[in-house]
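To close the chapter, one final illustration. This time we ask the reader to focus less on the individual chains and more on the assembly as a whole: which components sit near each other, and how the overall shape emerges from the parts.
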Amino acid sequence: MNSILPSRAMRSLPIKQVVTHSPELKSFLFEQTFEAEPGQFVMLWIPGLDEKPFSVSDVRDGWIEITAKAVGPFSRALMECQAGDRLGLRGPFGRGFRPRGRGLVVGGGMGIAPLRYLVHWLERDRAPFRVALGARTAAEMMFVGDFSRYGAEFATDDGTLGRQCLVTGLAARLCADESFDVIYGCGPEPMLVALKKLADERGLDCQLSLERHMKCGIGVCGSCCVDGSGLCICREGPVLDKAELDQVADFGLPHRDATGARKPPRT
Amino acid sequence: MNSILPSRAMRSLPIKQVVTHSPELKSFLFEQTFEAEPGQFVMLWIPGLDEKPFSVSDVRDGWIEITAKAVGPFSRALMECQAGDRLGLRGPFGRGFRPRGRGLVVGGGMGIAPLRYLVHWLERDRAPFRVALGARTAAEMMFVGDFSRYGAEFATDDGTLGRQCLVTGLAARLCADESFDVIYGCGPEPMLVALKKLADERGLDCQLSLERHMKCGIGVCGSCCVDGSGLCICREGPVLDKAELDQVADFGLPHRDATGARKPPRT
Amino acid sequence: MNPLAVQIAGIALESPLVLASGVLGTTASSLRRVARAGAGAVTTKSCGRTARPGHPAPCVLPWPGGLINAVGLSNPGVEAELEELAEYRRTCAAPLFVSIFADSPDEFGRLARRVAEAQPDLIEVNVSCPNVESEFGAPFAADPEACGRVTRAVKENAGAVPVSIKLSAQCASLARTAVICRQSGADALTAINTVGPGMWIDVGTGRPALANKVGGVSGPAILPIAVRAVYEIRKAVDLPIIGTGGVSCAEDALQLIMAGADAVGVGSAVYAGGVEVFGEINRGLSAFLKERGFDSLAQVKGLAQREGRA
Amino acid sequence: MNPLAVQIAGIALESPLVLASGVLGTTASSLRRVARAGAGAVTTKSCGRTARPGHPAPCVLPWPGGLINAVGLSNPGVEAELEELAEYRRTCAAPLFVSIFADSPDEFGRLARRVAEAQPDLIEVNVSCPNVESEFGAPFAADPEACGRVTRAVKENAGAVPVSIKLSAQCASLARTAVICRQSGADALTAINTVGPGMWIDVGTGRPALANKVGGVSGPAILPIAVRAVYEIRKAVDLPIIGTGGVSCAEDALQLIMAGADAVGVGSAVYAGGVEVFGEINRGLSAFLKERGFDSLAQVKGLAQREGRA
Ligand SMILES: Cc1cc2nc3c(=O)[nH]c(=O)nc-3n(C[C@H](O)[C@H](O)[C@H](O)COP(=O)(O)OP(=O)(O)OC[C@H]3O[C@@H](n4cnc5c(N)ncnc54)[C@H](O)[C@@H]3O)c2cc1C
Ligand SMILES: Cc1cc2nc3c(=O)[nH]c(=O)nc-3n(C[C@H](O)[C@H](O)[C@H](O)COP(=O)(O)OP(=O)(O)OC[C@H]3O[C@@H](n4cnc5c(N)ncnc54)[C@H](O)[C@@H]3O)c2cc1C
Ligand SMILES: Cc1cc2nc3c(=O)[nH]c(=O)nc-3n(C[C@H](O)[C@H](O)[C@H](O)COP(=O)(O)O)c2cc1C
Ligand SMILES: Cc1cc2nc3c(=O)[nH]c(=O)nc-3n(C[C@H](O)[C@H](O)[C@H](O)COP(=O)(O)O)c2cc1C
Ligand code: FES
Ligand code: FES
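The assembled structure is written out below.
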């Protein structure tokens, strides 16, 4: 039967190469079996364990790359995976960034991963952009060399790289100094809330990538639906535009866990 | 699901028009929902009764036509059908005639039906051809007016139309007088055997349309397979070429009934 | 008059299309979104007494015939679900069906009582989920008498809220099960749940691709089985039927209606078609009625049950 | 060495692909044609004692998920079938499996005795045809004990000819049925027959499109159910399994083999792919083995049965 795109079905592929940024942060390269736009993600399956969403952090030379950080059982198991191991890859899922005009690219923490592919894409399209990235500390700042080539500005909580401030501080200053059409953002939701506010104040468009608990990746199970509009982050997201963000009732609020219940507010 | 062509699935259509050649011989016109080549057939379903194969006797102006003769329970029930009645139509099935060069078109009895569409097709392609048709008696000769326009010659057993001889006699004479590349034939199998012999003797190609008991029309059930090569008349036929005919072990012999058993020889 | 309007168990639906349980059915927001996209009613994902995270992923996979899933009855528990229900009620008028599952008739009864207090339009009783075989579902759906016991327990507790029993095509005898459900007080039947179970193996690793190994098969692949099931049930009982299984276009929905369904569940089609599929099927149904000169769906319901020619 | 060669019940096959019963399986000529197209063995359409014309048409219909059929066990009767068998033998070396059906264990025994005299390579016992519900099939496949009785009756009469029992996914418990068949002497199991039954309604007329109204569902739509069935049977018994259902490409065949099948039946795929599909699947299987560095199919058989990670 061939009524669906084969790439959307489960398909295992051997890891072609593992790039170790640190023992807790690695990139995994696979043969590229489908097209993907920046901001789109794949569901990555470790057979016998679980399957989780990961953004495409680059596509080049017929390879597709994802970059993961060890934060829990799944991502720690992923750190053990070697070239040659077969993992399942389904995708590409969701809607990514839709480049337009002069862009301000703002990332925080693991949210930097998809932005790497975004800037490569923007460069290829000769679209003008500036980059501001934040992390807790220098060791956690991903792809510093790569982003530096584009004149990225950095912010860390501890001042070990770039300025000692929040990345939203960098973004605000850049917006004051230069003119932009759109803010592209990916990172912790409080950061996104601040970017949305900034964009609203400045009258800029914004495209922000959200995270919600994902199970199916294909807009069916409902576990990733935002409150308010009910859009599926896996399908209509993860990147939402301004109008869509206005309809996210739980934007910046605690969202739902694997049972579908709202998580208690973080303390 | 859309993995197969919709036209191959069962689809009922209202009869658009009934043309009464005689109470026992009628043509039925339907909206044309698929392309068909001369020699191809459809499976015609009378809901609540049965489904049987019928050749496409013409395609024109967005209409598709089949022509049937009352010979048994099914075809008699068909004679009762009126414009507006919905019948099931699946098709087109099988491989039809593949026109090449100068053709001699030879038909007998109900075998004349698909040849009508064939000559319209040949005329459109400006391919040169002659036609010889046979029937038991004038009243059973179909489409006389239409074929006369192409200078067809007629033969009847009782001499009520054209010559009083077998149509194979006409064919032999035409072959003696004129030169042809191919004989197209449809009609009773003894006639086809004679045409095959004629073609062999004259060194002509031939394309003859065979009948076998059909159930599925799609090359699965096996009820229409010829002995020898095992080809399905519903799928690789009904029109076979010379090389294919050479591999039909039961060509001209009694063939199989609905159980799959060989019928006893006719007496 | 709206030619697509139907009634089931006294509930008026603007469209015969009902969002099937388990698809975009956990939150008030997603249910509302589907109602606005054209569903005549929406069904929540089945909920139980307490929260369950369900099986690990992969738990829903597309395959060429549709989906295969072993979500494992993940749900936030009945209390959280009732909050969603209240929120839905405040913001959306389309009828809401609440699906419940449990592991004993008593437990079904208790759950039904709690849910009925919140006054949903209908309680759907999931006795047929194949994904938690030893825990829930299998024993009931496979055993007509057990379906009867569950039905009675729910009806005794549901008060005025109508109850639909969701049957499986794997029922030993669908006709007998339907009759027993009716005798036990069911107001409607939903048929069918997923089929199988099935298994999809990733040939690259040689591993079952679902974490749960097996899962329920749904989507286009199961349409003929759903049509047959509805046909069989309609022959056996005169209860309203929410015919469900494999519907992704108006023709599919018509097959179920002609087999005897009063309303039509749509679940997996959301994968290929998005929530927009509800509007598209509605438009297709309207076009069919208009083209064939019917005034309402009631005129085509059960057509396939006729015998003989003509 | 031919990497696709397999053995089942002592029979050597050049390819694991077996023409499934009921497809192009009535005459020596069509069976031979399929063997030449690349099938490792061919199975005849099920035959009974006497000739049956089967149901009126439409009796086989394509639908988007595959086929739906109610051929109704048409067959020329065992004597005519044995003539075909002899002719096949004279002209083709690929193993021939003869499928039989009957309405009682005794009748199955008598038929097996007659067929065994003609020395086919294997007798396949169709206890699972869903299309003649009240006459044949349903009672046996649905009841594990009945499957055992049929198996014993056939084995007592088949002499040295190996016997495969063809099971249905609708078996109450496939694992239990498999165990009972094994204990009753079965040399192999074939799984599965068609699924359902299903119904396809022509919405133009509102009529079931099959003359028999319901029919067995086969083709791509049933692959996950066949894979699960083979997996379940392989867990339960160590008999050779002819895994059948929904195979139309090498990946599909590999799913069944990884679930635990020794050989792979192919039927409905002939509709979309013609008899050429056998050669294509063979080439796909060879390419897979080569690419992954396996020497034979034995190395991938049952891979999906492993537990845990890695
Ligand atoms: C669209 C999207 C893109 C992502 N891209 C990346 C990426 O490029 N790199 C990366 O390292 N991480 C990415 N993540 C997050 C990644 O999926 C989680 O970090 C990972 O699943 C953690 O699993 P764990 O078992 O290691 O940790 P756990 O301890 O299970 O979880 C840690 C945290 O990860 C998140 N998480 C866990 N499971 C899921 C799930 N099923 N769906 C969504 N979030 C979950 C939750 O916030 C949770 O609190 C992305 C998530 C989403 C939704
Ligand atoms: C490829 C093909 C094209 C045909 N085209 C035409 C046509 O254009 N016009 C026309 O009038 N007839 C055509 N026929 C024959 C037509 O199918 C039969 O005449 C019709 O089925 C008779 O059915 P009945 O119940 O009226 O008669 P019956 O008494 O059932 O049968 C009369 C004769 O029709 C033939 N027949 C019956 N059933 C079948 C079947 N399922 N498959 C094949 N042959 C059958 C047999 O030779 C039988 O002896 C065609 C047959 C084939 C195989
Ligand atoms: C992802 C998924 C989850 C489901 N969860 C439930 C459930 O919780 N309760 C239930 O009764 N049915 C559940 N079902 C079954 C559907 O409600 C429906 O009966 C079945 O999928 C057939 O319809 P479809 O082919 O339109 O999807 C689920 C189906 C899918 C695909
Ligand atoms: C037209 C048709 C006729 C069939 N006839 C028989 C039969 O006579 N005996 C039998 O055991 N199985 C019969 N089957 C079932 C097949 O052998 C096979 O088990 C089933 O179709 C699943 O395989 P598939 O998806 O490859 O077709 C038939 C299937 C079809 C499609
Ligand atoms: S993850 Fe299932 S709907 Fe988005
Ligand atoms: S009619 Fe069935 S194979 Fe030709």
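The interface with chain C takes residues 63-65, 68, 169-170, 172, 195-201, 203, 206-208, 213-214, 217, 220-225, 227-228, 231, 251, 254-255, 258-259, 288, 300, 303-304, 306 of chain D (CB under 8 Å). The longest helix of chain D spans residues 276-292. With these observations in hand, you are ready for the problems at the end of the chapter.
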